[in-house]
Amino acid sequence: MRAASVSDYRELARRRLPRIFFEYIDGGSYAEATLARNVDDLEAIALRQRVMRDMSKLDMGVESLGQAFAMPVGLAPVGMAGMYARRGETQAARAAAEAGLPFCLSAMGVCDAAEVAATGAPPWFQLYMLKDRGYMRELLGRVKALGCPVLVFTVDLPIPGARYRDVRSGFTGSSGVSGALNTAWDGITHPAWLWDVGLHGRPHSLGSVAGAVQGSRRVTDFLSWVARNFDRTVTWKDLDWVRETWDGPIVVKGVLDPADAKDAVKAGAQGLVVSNHGGRQLDGVRSSISALPRIADAVGADLEVYMDGGIRSGLDVLKAMALGAKACFIGRAWAYALGAGGQAQVARMLGTLRSELAVAMVLTGCANVRDAGRELLDLEA
Q1: 182: pLDDT confidence band, cut at 50, 70 and 90?
Q2: Catalytic residue among 190, 200, 204, 277
Q3: How many Cβ atoms from other residues are within 10 Å of residue 318's Cβ?
Q4: Residue ranges per domain, the chain?
Q5: What whole-number distance in Å separates Cα of residue 64 and Cα of residue 251?
Q6: Which fold has domain 6-48+67-357?
Q7: Of 162, 160, 157, 154, nearest in space to 32 by CA
Q8: What is the pTM (predicted TM-score) of this model?
Q9: Is 277 a catalytic residue?
């Protein structure tokens, strides 16, 4: 199948990846109500078609935090991307750089920041507040020395969400001989993945925290260490501690409430991501797109407002821009494409998003994406 949409890349990834890894990226928490809302609420928004306008020139570029975006899209942090394709974070980072877009590396990535930076463009770096503050300080120092331009500080994970799919697939809660056999069989029955990642994609560790987890060989060992180190005591004051090591822009990721957005401004953040962690944390909360307008209205003049969650097309990007986002970050979309076939498929998917955005801009009469506002939406639909 030749992929024409993000849903096609999802299907290709489902066929190619072992079940445990596909379910890990595809699933959400509990009954996955919020996961569905992220997509459904975007689909329910109607664009306002306008005609007979000169749309011969389109400008899709935006600038934010000193970064130039060729279109208002960035690659969001995705954990364990190196298990979807060989050294997956580096492949995705190259595709993003070629498209003129920022790539944000997850602290739970298989590749560390040095390996990704060696592709030519230091990534934005995403981090959680960890109990092991000594290691966290060391890590911040390393990514700063590499020239990583922006720190994305995820605040909606003081405790891991409950994801039923991971239990059913054996990703979590599986141990002993039967668990090992199931995992081995999962790999053997996906030979393309086994050759590309299982045999030639090593080491299978979380590169950013490998120095803190001694004697471990499996990805799940590293994930367990990270889960034990999530810090439930974190408050806005902890950003002052982060500032002792990091003097660049800080983007707070995981905000759904205007009051929290205002606190992010007070804490000195330069940006925030309206996000419910892709529906992977607290199920039953509102979708990112439904939270976006109130947050943009409350704080949009004080910092950069981004959004992630449910973006599946260029039309979705324009809808988010119209409701106040400076740019959108995509997660599952690029993870599906990576799982479908590595850098080449990520590049094709980004090209598809760009083409879809162009069509949406032309048919709504929006020649400059920076001018997108609520007049592009049919709010009576």
Answers
A1: low
A2: 277
A3: 29
A4: 6-48+67-357
A5: 11
A6: TIM Barrel (3.20.20)
A7: 162
A8: 0.95
A9: yes
